[in-house]
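Input (Antibiotic biosynthesis monooxygenase):
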Amino acid sequence: MSDHPVEAFEPPYYVAVFTTIRTGEQDGYPETNARMEELVNQIPGYLGMDHAQTPGGLGITVGYFRDAEALTRWRTDEEHRAAQQRGRAEWYQSYTLHIAKVERSHGFTRAD
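Output:
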């Protein structure tokens, strides 16, 4: 993961906002998370990801996709679906998923 936010892309594009509270059981999570990042990077139309974790345990991951087809490919990937099932069974106390079409986007970077 980068320590910089994903750049602003030319709209329209899609975002998947995944917010989580994890359980105390995290065996296998780091390895599975790394594998999911490897897989999603192979999807044509995947643009990047931002992630943040609060001290209280709220995790927020935002995935950026050029079009609905790229997002569907990610949603229906067999390994991803297996990881989702394991997440519900072991790693997540709760989660929400929001999918949105971005209609406006801009960014700012301070010059050093």
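The beta strands are 13-22, 46-53, 58-65, 92-102.
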